[in-house]
Amino acid sequence: MSAAVTLPRADGRLERHVLGEPAAFAPPSEPLRSRRLFAAAHVVADPLRTSVEGGALDWEATMAFRRHLWRWGLGVADAMDTAQRGMGLDYGTTRELIERSAAEARAVGGALVCGVGTDQLPARAPASLDAIVAAYLEQGQHAQAHGAGVVLMASRHLAAAAHGPDDYRAVYDRVLADLDGPVVIHWLGDMFDPALAGYWGSRDLDRATEVCLDVLHANAAKIDGIKLSLLDHEREVDLRRWLPDGVRMYTGDDFHYDDLILGDGERASDALLGIFDAIAPAASAAVQALDRDDADTYRATLSPTVPLARHLFAAPTYHYKAGIVFLAYLNGHQDHFRMLGGLESARAVIHLADAFVLADRAGLLHDPESAAGRMRAFLRLAGVS
Questions:
Q1: Residue 310 CA to chain centroid, in angstroms?
Q2: What is the 3-state secondary structure (H, E, C) of 250-306?
Q3: Based on the number of CB atoms within 10 Å of its own CB, is 11 exposed (0-12), middle (13-18) or buried (19 or more)?
Q4: Nearest residue to 214 via CA among 196, 198, 226
């Protein structure tokens, strides 16, 4: 008999949902070839030591989840916004996370890049451009010393301190000159972090894009690619035409990744995505199909995940992490639904119930009976009977 759960709906009704069968995804037998994929990975909070003021990590569960991603042939992008960077993960814990993940990557031969920013500086105090450069270099050199690749994250401090495009050019030129390459540049839009509005020195995206391209072309020898997280399909397609030779486009578009990774027949995007945390088996299976030149199977595999992604990343987009962690809980990657800073409360119960249904429809609940039991336990705590 199929598992079933009675779920609350937006109109106030309770509705019985019968779960389907999980998709028959299989890990790759050889490295993925046709696209380079990184999953931005979440962290697992220690449920007994986390609160609205902060908290600690369950290191074993956090590392086990990274091993899960590597098993599916994906690289891990760690210490980024999906790991609650800037929303509960302090810099001291971030350093330890990078060190531990780098050791795990070496042990299993997994690809690893880590977010490098300026968050060791005081959060709400002004910072000089020299201090911002020094902070970037401190973090970047720490990551590289442990064997991790660098994702140069957008800096709240730089967004607050810069007087215009020239300050962005100067900071990035100085940082990239002193870091070993290759580095990924991350342009994170203000839908993910409102403090980054006007990044690259302008709220006009066309002008901001010009400045970003100036930095990429001036430093192309040090740059592996750019991760673009603007949720703007057309801008990404345009920007990847203007990239310097050898510089990759890593889509960060959690709304249109299926089309962007497939490409337009002329160019395609690689990917560094938060949604891959939740859909790693499907993402892997889809690119395995591309490796066989089977675009139909690619679409049939990945397209059913898009409604889930658009739901999880709905406004306010920066709370997508709650849905990502909830799905990890449903799939047994952690024994609880608790997050650093109490951010499990950032999404409504009905939002999470809808995520449960969409994950099931995409075949992403690998043990439906277990997922149903966890969903029922969550609903009981929420007062749904």
A1: 14
A2: EECCCCCHHHHHHCCCCCCCEEEECCHHHHHHHHHHHHHHHHCCCHHHHHHHHHHHH
A3: exposed
A4: 226
Place of tokens 């990557």: 105
Using one digit for the tens of pLDDT, what is the confidence trace for 347-363?
999 999 999 999 999 99
Per-residue model confidence as pLDDT tens digits over 73-98: 999 999 999 999 999 999 999 999 99
Name residue 116's beta-bridge partners: 152
Which residue's entry shows tokens 């940082």?
175
Residue 210 is inside which H or E element, if any?
helix 205-218
In the DSSP assignment, the letter for residue 38 is E
Predicted TM-score (pTM) of this structure: 0.97
* Angle, alpha carbons 56-61-63 (nearest 5°): 95
Give me the residue spans of the domains in the chain: 33-342
Task: Identify the three-state secondary structure at position 193.
Answer: coil
Q: What is the CATH number of domain 33-342?
A: 3.20.20.70
Q: Are 80 and 101 in contact (CB under 8 A)?
A: no
* Residue in 240, 231, 250, 190 with CA at minimum distance from that of residue 213: 240
